[in-house]
């Protein structure tokens, strides 16, 4: 079971309290009317599914009922950091390789 | 004062009020006396529950709530603001949401006071009918809670005066620690019957007494 730090509750909680909500930082196209079908399809349906660090949204369903972001290693399931919506991640695959 | 039509949800004519547990029938063997029981369950029905939403970064809002309710607004998860003498408690639920519990029949007055004091962007909802409070006391309560929730209820991690919202018996509940050996659960009406049965079943091995 994952032990997840909720940045709003400022405490580690059990995975049972949370719901994963998919990839984070997906920007909606600024002008939907002028966006091609392919770009709109990418925005709606296509996700990165990387091997390694992945930025995703989680929802603290049983606690504060707020969304926040998690950087998780999709190979080891290790949670590298959690941060509030609107903030930017400090860890990605490039920074992890540099730290090694 | 915000320009809202407000209504006192408790009618003036005497009508029969029923707690969410009124229809609950349980066949757990209970202890006849509280002294011999490991867990004592007591329902505090018909308290006034209000959900308050607002901006914690707004000093006017934070001060206004304290002025209206007489207890400070908690700004982080955990410590409750309690006035035991008046039976008022205020709990942080999320960064912009709080649960206010006042004695039965005082919810409407508290709501009116908040509406008079606060300005700007906020919301107060009376959810008294939607939830109820179960008080748990006795030496075996922490052990019983460990069977029900993944949250750490060890005294080092759960000091007196703390309140958390967490998963409890496959649903959610608010767990509070009132003092050294008294705990409280705030549970939803729709889950009250299920949780009450679960609690008595979980407490049976320690000896359970239901106080009226």
Structural summary, described in words:
The complex is a heterodimer of chains A (100) and B (212). With 100 residues, chain A is an alpha+beta fold. Chain A has one domain: Folate-binding fold. Chain A is 16% helix and 33% strand. In chain A, 21% of the residues are buried. The model of chain A has no long low-confidence stretch (mean pLDDT 95). In chain B, helix 1 runs antiparallel to helix 2. In chain B, strands 3-9-10-11-8-1-12 form a 7-stranded mixed sheet. Chain B has a single domain, classed as Gyrase A, domain 2 (2-Layer Sandwich). Chain B is of the alpha+beta class and 212 residues long. Chain B contains 4 helices and 12 strands; from the N terminus they run E-E-H-E-E-E-E-H-E-E-H-E-E-E-H-E. In chain B, a hairpin with a 2-residue loop joins strand 5 and strand 6. Helices cover 21% and strands 32% of the residues of chain B. Chains A and B meet through strand 2 of A and strand 9 of B.
Strand and helix map with partners:
The complex is a heterodimer of chains A (100) and B (212).
Chain A: E1 3-6, E2 11-14, E3 19-23, H1 37-45, E4 53-59, E5 67-73, E6 79-84, H2 93-99
Chain B: E1 39-44, E2 48-53, H1 59-69, E3 78-79, E4 81-83, E5 88-94, E6 97-102, H2 107-117, E7 123-126, E8 131-137, H3 141-148, E9 162-168, E10 171-179, E11 182-188, H4 189-203, E12 208-211
Parallel strand pairs in B: 1-12
Antiparallel strand pairs in B: 1-8, 2-6, 2-7, 3-9, 4-5, 5-6, 8-11, 9-10, 10-11
Helix pairs in contact in B: 1-2
Properties at a glance:
heterodimer, A: 100 residues, alpha+beta, Folate-binding fold, 4-stranded antiparallel β-sheet, two-stranded antiparallel sheet, 16% helix, globular, B: 212 residues, Gyrase A, domain 2, 5-stranded antiparallel β-sheet, 4 helices
